[in-house]
Amino acid sequence: MPPSPAARLRALYFLYYGNVGTYLPFFAVYLHGLGFSGKQIGVIQMLPSFPLAPAVAIAWATFADHRASPPRALRLATGRVALAVLLLPFARTPWEVGAVVVLMALGDRAVVPLADSVTIEWCRENPGVSYARIRLFGSLGFVALTVLVGRLLTVRGGGPADL
């Protein structure tokens, strides 16, 4: 039997914010392990935020409103992010990593607005379900995966970046 929509939304928030919790503190260290300079790391980390975030979120929202449904747009956006993430271990130069980060941002920057839209609509249709309780799993994922990855990296040691 497939999981309920609430369970799928909880899992999405858990994994998405778990990713945020691991990406933010550890990605710069990973890039440093690849031998990137501070300037290169800064530029790579800036790419998804400033030039892309507003345009991507608006584009996905427009797509969801006019050509698809929010759940379908959310599935497409998260699928694109997942495919782009698979390229990251093979990107070894600043240009390659920057390109992968931009590809990730083309879906990633729309995940939260679309997920919130889907969750709020689902909660409205199912009055016994709480948006806050579903969204709480994002905070749990952030904490759990950040601590887990931090511990795994501590055990691994301070070697250079690898696959």
Helix/strand structural class: mainly alpha
Secondary-structure element order, N to C: HHHHHH
How large is the share of residues in beta strands?
under 5%
Structural shape: globular
Ends apart, CA distance between termini: 35 Å
Low-confidence stretches: none
List the helices and strands and how they pair.
Elements: H1 5-33, H2 38-46, H3 48-66, H4 70-87, H5 94-125, H6 131-156
Characterise the protein shown here.
It contains 6 helices and no strands. The longest helix is centred in the C-terminal third of the chain and has 32 residues, at 94-125. The protein has helices spanning 5-33, 38-46, 48-66, 70-87, 94-125, 131-156. Helix 1 (5-33) runs antiparallel to helix 5, helix 2 (38-46) runs parallel beside helix 5 and helix 3 runs antiparallel to helix 4 (70-87). Helix content is 82%, strand content 0%. The mean pLDDT is 91. The chain is mainly alpha-helical.
